[in-house]
Amino acid sequence: MNNSWSAADVAANAGGKIVAGNSAASAPAAITIDSRAIEPGALFVGLTGSVHDGGEFAAAALASGAWGVIVSDQHAAALGCDDEQVVIAVSDPLRALADLAHAWRRELGCAVIAVTGSTGKTSTKDIIAGMLAPSRRTVATIENFNTEIGLPLTILAAPAGTEVLVLEMAMRGEGQIAELTRIAQPDVGVIVNVGPVHLELLGTVEAVARAKAELLVGLGPDAIAVVPADEALLEPYIRSDIRTVRFGPGGELEQLPDTIELPFASAHMRSNALAALAAVRALGVEPSGLIEVELSKLRGQRLLLEDNVVVINDCYNANPMSMRAALDDLADSASGRTVAVLGDMRELGPDQRRFHAELGAHVRELGVEVLVTVGELARDAGPPFGGENLYSLESAAQAADQIASIVEPGDTVLIKGSRGVGLEVVGESLCQALPPAAGGGA
Question: Is the pLDDT of residue 25 over 90?
Fold first, then answer.
């Protein structure tokens, strides 16, 4: 945050008022929503959650040396603080966090690339950051900081002098991408793809497209949109008043130039790289050579273990589109036997059983030798797969217990499922049984 801001500036940008403390105090050193993570000089924002009201922990945050707190009017009225601390009262702490981030984004004056999509948005964000790193001071979304809470925190953590913010935007329903777009004011808006996700809430893929397209609707008049060339569901939202770059077959950017070398070969990752290239070119950056990409945790990470076993750890999330892409990559890249450990795909609505059955058929068509299903829904993939090498397990814990006995030397093992299944324990168990080989990469 801007060190030139005073406490009064912080309050004004958050849409609040100082009710106790020093209005002339300089800006906080950091911002947090977790009172347990308070360090001296940090601003605590007391958000109201479904389980806890953060405002109830504001007094403890002040006692731990917080610079100050932003809390609801109700909580602020009961708080006091030291002379060098600040209590800021607001009507809605979440809106205050968003407005504060919006103000800091304007103050930074940097370029902003926003990325959303049904699958691959995290990898695309990571590739964009890798393409920008050699020539631009870049801050990108970390972990799952892609929501109405995480995105503002990402912006507020960006230091003065940041040249590009790369912000991932997630959604669970309508209106959420619109709010993130309002906060971030992107110069470049990227939609990686549209697919059957969150159908439990949105109902149809057309509704998913409409929700993702809130990014396009919210772009400013000088912004650039990057969209897949083959996605007809986005066409109603393409704007004639801004420049749109289409990537993929039939688009303005159909293939990667020979001057770019990527640390992966899968078709879906190269498609993500096309979207990333279009985004960075929109900022006047022309990457070349080997692009160093640090993929986010549990998103397609490859690990070489002893006995020449390769683990593809892609268990952060799953939907029919991302499952197919990961399985295609498994079939194309494996040099030995292929093993797919697939967990439930959640939030797919009334057609969830059909989606899982179709997944099992796809596994069979690809020639994957071993299928391990984890969870009640994933079990429906078993009958279409058929064959002897089928294991239907109830939980990730069961899969973790049995995985070492299933895997053979030379296998390539894909681990993928929705986050709630918790399949990361399967990869951890396999790594304990077969420690990483020298070098560790695959």
Answer: no
CB 17 within 8 A of CB 96: no
> Which DSSP category does 437 fall into?
P
Q: Domain limits of the chain? A: 7-93, 109-290, 301-433
Which residues, 6 or more positions from 63, have their beta carbon under 8 angstroms from its beta carbon? none
DSSP 8-class letter at 289: E
pTM of model > 0.85: yes
Give 120's DSSP letter: S
pLDDT at site 4:
77
Report yes or no: 104 and 185 within 8 Å, Cβ to Cβ. no
Q: What angle do CA 211, 213, 218 make, to 5 degrees?
A: 110
Pick the CATH number of 301-433 from 3.30.420.140, 3.40.50.970, 1.10.10.10, 3.90.190.20: 3.90.190.20
Pick the CATH number of 109-290 from 3.40.1190.10, 3.10.180.10, 3.30.70.1730, 3.90.190.20: 3.40.1190.10
Q: What is the pLDDT of residues 306-351, one digit of tens each?
A: 999 999 999 888 999 999 999 999 999 999 999 999 999 998 999 9
